[in-house]
Amino acid sequence: MATPPAATSRITGVVAIIRLRDRPAPDRLVDALIAGGVEHLEVTATTPDAHATVERWRRRHPEALVGVGTVRTPAQAEAAISAGATFLVTPTTVPGVLEVARTHDIPVACGALTPTEIDNAWLLGADTVKVFPITAVGGPDYLRALRDPLPDVPLLPTGGVDAGNLRAYAGAGAAGVGIGSALVSEARVAAEQWDVVRDHARSLTDAWKGHA
Ligand SMILES: O=C[C@H](O)COP(=O)(O)O
Hints:
Layout: E1 13-18, H1 27-35, E2 40-44, H2 50-60, E3 65-69, H3 74-82, E4 88-89, H4 95-104, E5 108-112, H5 115-123, E6 128-131, H6 139-147, E7 155-157, H7 166-171, E8 176-179, H8 186-190, H9 194-211
Helix pairs in contact: 1-9, 3-4
Glyceraldehyde-3-phosphate binds near residues 19, 159 and 179.
């Protein structure tokens, strides 16, 4: 098990979601994402060999924040943390997952959608609340509407976020954005387009820093 970085930062900024169906994530991918300025790398548990990838990437880039996503049970949380995950991301809010993470002092971005779900996740100890799948339910306007009654909750809109709407999410008060297929697509990985991934990551992280 790799040693976590000394300080685990809040799960904010551009979170790159690596969700591949057909192949494990290669090392050139993490090199490209980091070269593009990405600080949080989320390897989803649905990606083949996800835990082995996290272990390898932590050794390759000891300073990087490499998390495991799509964690749904306490047992999955334990396994992810044993593999060296520096943060967890969940699609739903499961109190047992938060308990495991708290025990290990690992931050969790909890998935939630409605105001009740979001506040529940926050009060249960989520580091950040992943508002998913946001683009399907109202996009930046929905996020802005949530900020009025829940101003203290760091929100991480996820699902359909891309270069075309990132600035609108930043302007609506997002603490960060989760970006999957618009950055790391199966086709881009299959074609080994590492320069494309790096340049796209750079434009997304620069856009975020310029507007958040
Ligand atoms: O867990 C979240 C989804 O994988 C987000 O994916 P997307 O950015 O491709 O919509």
